[in-house]
Every structure is written in structure tokens, then in C-alpha cells.
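Dear colleague,

As promised, here are the two records you asked about, laid out in our usual form so they can be pasted straight into your sheet.

NAME FIELD: protein one
SEQUENCE, THEN STRUCTURE:
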Amino acid sequence: MHADSWALKAKKLGFRSRAVFKLEEILKKTNALQGSEIILDIGSAPGGWSELVKNLSSSSKVFAIDLLDMAPIEGVNFFKDDVSNIDNIKEISCLKSQFDLVISDLAPNLTGISTIDEENIFELNILTLLIARKYLKEDSGHFIIKTFQNGMLKKLKTEMEKRFKIVQTYKPAASKSKSSEIYLYGESPS
């Protein structure tokens, strides 16, 4: 498979994946990283997003969780586990309502059957949203989640609007033009 310019740029700069540029663009537009001291990365493998936030905010505490292995990143506390078990990870659960930023590049394995895939994406997005809301600070905080443009997007956005004062949609330049991926941003939990 031939690498696109974003993948080549990521490799040249030593990043684990092209996804760092997607998050970087959203962080710049929202200032979500500014003042963020405790960060949770849900669905962190291969580690590009954790690596980026640690590079941009070296003093921040970053906690990452994924079912897949992730090579170590200095200053990132990685837990190989299912996100649905997050409350059982003492190092993370003791920080409920203390995170400044929750980021998620999580996606389910796709079957190729659109109705099943859409439902699986929505269920995983809702689980991630509920976890973010539980772990973010009560009156402040930022949430960035990858999802997909499909029949469930409007419903997901409505669920986010119930839980955040500000909700915005982003399609970063580093996203492939043919990709249906899209990112939602939530600020100031309500």
C-alpha cells in the first residue's frame, strides 16, 4: 500500500501514525490542550495521540487504555484492557471527575455490513461518551472523539449536546477525503 503525504510526514517526524495530525489540528482550533494537566486517551494504540499530547504538554499526566498492545511512551501510563473495564483500573478510577481532556480514536472492528457497523460504532461511541463525562472535571473539560458519518451521527451529536455546553464537528485536513471519519468535540460538561 502506498503511503500518502500525511503518513510520510508522520514517519519523517518520528510519529507512530498519521492520526497525530488530525488531533493536532483539532487541539489548535479548540485550545483543548491548554491548561490540561490530566489526560485520558481511550483506544490509544498504536499511541500516536498519547505521544502527541505528551510532546505538546510534557508536564501533563497521560493515561492510555486499549485492548491492543502499545509500545511504551515515556510519561504515559498505559493499561492493556477493555475500555468497559476502566472503573476497575485503580490508577484511573481514583481520578474520576479530575481529567481535563479525554481523547478517543477508538473504533470497532468493521464487518462490512453497514447496519451492524453503524450500531457497533454508535454503541462504542456512547460508552466512550459516558466514560468521558464521568472522568472529566464537573465544570470544565474537553472531549474529542472519532466517529463516522452515518445514520447514527445525528443521534450521537444529540447525546453529546445533552452532556456538553459546546459541541462542534471537525473533518481535519489529514483525514482521507474518501473516509467517512469525523471528529466531535465537546467542551464544558453540563
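NAME FIELD: protein two
SEQUENCE, THEN STRUCTURE:
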Amino acid sequence: MLHRIALGKVLPTVLMLLALASTAEAQDCTGSGNYRIRIRPGLITFPPPTVSDYQAGWLLAPTADIRVQPRRVADRGWELCLAADSPTMGGYGKPVSDIEFQQDGTGAWIPLATTDQLLAIGDRNRTVTLQFRMALDWTLDVPGQYETDITAKAARD
């Protein structure tokens, strides 16, 4: 099952569309299955960056929850993957890899990619919480509005 969410990023007010997934290793998530995926919120907006954010080099967005619910007993075991639909966020070409995510507030930050990234492996219903951050650079980031679509997929493992 595929699902899209919106993710917003701001370099004086930027919006991005994302759909989500966690422990980044290349994965294809091409199995079958019948799943309900719920992402809350569906639109994630980064706040306008401050001088402190630029000095830190990162801007945090609110967390997003992805809920996976198998619809059939045969589909209880599943993999959840995440991938960006485009290598850039539009505008002047800021790469989607400038957005990183972290699962459940622990572990390494993983750069977003256009290939499937394994977020979680589960059995039955589960909610995965993702935190997003975006790299900021005074010399490279042009003020503007940027968007990207991210696709979350669940497949039988």
C-alpha cells in the first residue's frame, strides 16, 4: 500500500509534501498485502529558521506518526519503507538528502533518499514516530518555498 503525506520546510517559509518510513538501508518493499497506513499530521511544516538554527546547521520539524494496520491475518508481518519521489525539493535544487529523519527519538539521523528505506518491520498494528530535520547553510540556501513528495509503503515481509 502506498501513502503520501505533506512535509513543509521553511527558509523564510517553505512547504514540502512528504510521505514517510526508518533504519535506512536499501530495501525494495515490493511485496503484496493489504494495509491501512495513517500518517498524522499529513502536512509537516518546518518553522521559519532563526539565526540560531543556521548556526546549528539544522531546523527541526514537529514529529509525525505513521500507523500501520494489517487488514488480513495473512498480512500481519510487514515492512514499512519510505522514499522521496524526487531528488530535489524544487526551487534552486536543494537536495532531499538535506532532510533527515529519526525513528522514535533514538538512533542515527538518516538522510532522505529516492530509493526505498526500511523504517520498521512489524507484526500486527504498530505506530512509528518520525522526527524530521533539515540541513541549513547560509551560503547555499536561497529563501523560498520548496516541496517534495515522500511515499510510505507497507508490504508483507
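A couple of things worth noting about protein two: The domain at 2-156 is CATH 2.60.40 (Immunoglobulin-like). Helices lie at 51-56.

Best,
R.
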